[in-house]
Amino acid sequence: ARIWTLAKQPVGIPRKEDFSCIEKEVSECKNGDVIVEAEYLSVDPYMCFMAKKVPFGTPMIGTQVSRVIESKNPDLPVGSYVVAQAGWCTHARLPAKSFQIDNWFKRSEILIPLEPLPRSLGLGVIGMPGNTAYFGLLEVCKPKAGETVLVNAAAGAVGSTVVQIAKLKGCKVIAFAGSDEKVAWLKELGADHAYNYKTTSVTDCLSEAAPEKINCYFDNVGGKFTADVLPHMADYGRVAVCGSISNYTNDDHSDPYCDPVVKAKKLHIEGLNVNRWSDWTQGLEQMKEWVLEGKVKYRETVYEGFEKMPEAFIGLFSGDNIGKAVVKA
Ligand code: NDP
Q1: With a 6 A CB cut-off, is 44 part of the ligand 1 pocket?
Q2: Residue ranges of the domains in the chain?
Q3: With the CA atoms of 63, 68, 70 and 74 taken in that order, what torsion angle do they form, in degrees rounded to the nearest 10?
Q4: C-alpha to C-alpha distance for 316 and 85, rounded to whole angstroms
Q5: How crowded is the C-beta side of 71, counted as CA atoms within 13 Å?
Q6: Which ligand 1 atom sits closest to the C-alpha of 324?
Q7: What ligand 1 atom has the least distance to the C-alpha of 158?
Q8: Which of 23, 145, 206, 312 is placed for a possible disulfide with 303 were both Cys, Cβ 3.0 to 4.6 Å?
Q9: Whose CA is nearest to atom 8 of ligand 1?
Q10: Residue 274 CA: which ligand 1 atom is closest?
């Protein structure tokens, strides 16, 4: 197997030199185990703060859609596909117990049948990011028809799905992303207002787009962006803290959830984590149905070749991806 490991702990935005590719034998396939070969590998923002915590030499963690190529497990015959928590590697051994773990970050799963859709969607809109958008928006923000929903990093894997689910639920949607091409796509997806946060002022845009104020804020970015948004929240607004990507690569951990605004507006702020939902498969089935019906559209940025893992990952922090970033092994 080829495996990407951490060569140095990243400082600021990760660089290619922070990663090194090693070769290692896959251990023997024993009773209950399967050996898998990666077809598509995911790069996700959370890998950044994890890489900053673990010692160098540690294999990079992550999910992949992979094919069973050797099996000692009757439930997973050769040729079946799984969503494996195998990390950044071409081949891996998965023990039977890795399918029973009660923690998304460690659990492997059988890939739900996706035909005629591409299997890579099991890492995106019909996978963890899709479920994050689905449950995060509906269970944390609880948007009602006619309410105003704001989402940032809106042309990414989670954000683009949030935009469309909010529209399906009859909301007014304001979306921010980091390029004019992304803004154009967000308008195609139905966003009522879409802005390039790199060339506009968030405060001015929100005064224009939401004079009625924002009921639901699905936050992927945190930091100054969030500090600019909170004064535009409606009383009793709901904030889903999904991620804070602007903090993952810098050392400025300023707390945007400043007391006075949160108290004055009586906001409900809730952190969300993919581990919290038990009806995972129901979420995936709903996302699949919407994709097949054309109600939820998706884009992917596909990097060709396992050697592109670091490049694909680093690109998340400069906004190189539109929709879900994946690597085809
Ligand atoms: P994306 O596909 O959205 O990729 C990341 C995007 O973030 C980039 O394309 C870029 O778009 C934007 N971005 C990067 N740096 C900055 C910055 N400094 N300021 C503003 N925007 C930035 O990734 P995901 O959809 O996978 O993840 C989105 C967020 O959701 C992340 O914060 C992630 O950690 C979080 N998340 C949380 C989960 C949970 O369980 N709570 C589960 C999954 C994801 P642009 O061009 O617009 O800048």
Answers
A1: yes
A2: 2-123+299-328, 128-275
A3: 110
A4: 20
A5: 13
A6: 2
A7: 25
A8: 312
A9: 319
A10: 40
Ligand 1 pocket mutation pick from 245, 253, 311 by most atoms within 8 angstroms of CB = 245
DSSP-derived letter for residue 257 is: S
pLDDT tens figures, 168-203:
999 999 999 999 999 999 999 999 999 999 999 999
**Helix, strand, coil shares, percent, the chain, to 5:** 35, 25, 40
Query: Quick one: tokens of 218?
Result: 């699905």
> How many whole angstroms separate alpha carbon 192 and alpha carbon 187?
7
Global confidence as pTM: 0.97
- CA angle (158 as vertex; 152, 161 as ends), nearest 5: 95
| Eight-state DSSP code of residue 119 | G
Helix (H) or strand (E) holding 175: strand 172-177
Nearest residue (CA) to ligand 1, atom 15: 317
Report helix angle 157-168 to 180-188, nearest 10. Answer: 30
For domain 128-275, say whether CATH 3.40.50.720 is its number.
Answer: yes
157, β-bridge pairs: none
Partners of 23 in the β-ladder: 2
What does the block give as tokens for 235?
Answer: 């009383």
Specify the fold of 2-123+299-328: Quinone Oxidoreductase; Chain A, domain 1 (3.90.180)
**What digits encode the pLDDT tens for the residues 36-69?**
999 999 999 999 988 988 999 999 999 999 999 9
Q: Do domains 2-123+299-328 and 128-275 have the same CATH topology?
A: no
The pLDDT, as a whole number, for residue 259 is 67
Q: 74-81 contacts: CB < 8 A, separation 24 or more?
A: 75/110, 76/34, 76/110, 80/110, 80/111, 81/39, 81/110, 81/111, 81/119, 81/122
Q: Residue range 223-243: average pLDDT?
A: 95
